[in-house]
Amino acid sequence: xxxxxxxxxxxxxxxxxxxxxxxxxxxxFGVMFGKKVGGFARRAEEIVSGELTGAPEIKVIVEAMxxxxxxxxxxxxxxxxxxxxxAKQNAMAQLFMTAPAVGAVIALSVASTYDDASRFxxxxxxxxxx
Length: 130
Description:
This protein is mainly alpha-helical. Helix content is 68%, strand content 0%. The protein is elongated and about 65 Å long.
């Protein structure tokens, strides 16, 4: 379970790094990314098709990075489906998900960290690093 969650976390981090790198690259060449109205991909496509028409070398780089981002998002979706399926089969995760704003990732993270809750005599003896 931890390997699944760790792999998902890594891919989400890589997606964020790619997005940040695209923004920095564009800013270096005077193109401000601005607000992501409609999502990151939509705004990036607007920039590639509009503001980068005069800079074909930068356009190729941004398109390659967007392709890598799309591929990573597809892999994240696959892992998300596995996380949701695992959460459905884990009774402790199901219990955690009854709390507001706790989804499958958080529920499985906590459930896999504590494993067997009966090991703890009192709730105050449980400590989880942020």
